[in-house]
Amino acid sequence: MTTTLTPPIKPRSEDSFAISFAPLSMEEIYTKADDPGNGAVVVMSGMVRNQTDGKPVVTLEYQAYEPMALRVFYQIAADIRSSWSDVNRVVIHHRVGRLQVGEISVLVAVGCPHRSEAFEACRYAIDTLKHNAPIWKKEHYRDGFSSWVSIGACEAQDC
Prior knowledge:
The protein is an alpha+beta fold. The chain is 30% helix and 36% strand.
């Protein structure tokens, strides 16, 4: 079996992608997605909620395989521009480490001349990220138990 590696996708200079231990800033992400040609900036904020399937959650711990995750982010932006050619900016930042209930874990923003395309592209970005990016979370429950949950590509590949 031969494996062919595709060359890395180079991000556009106006886009922004990051995996970070630092808290994410809605204002910073919005600013990065802003552009004079935009008629809309759509921002999606993923947060740590206090329960999963009715089981009380006290914290989440995120880990990522950063080089591959960033490559997935770049591919998402390339796919977006193939489908929505007017998109001006794509911003995807994901946090790793231990997060408390209510903290932001991921911010995705898309700047575009028209709102419908911005909404569609933003939804595509978060849905694709959750399916393809090698990012995992460990849910820590109130009862002291915890469990790892894959939110990325390795779930389907059993890695």
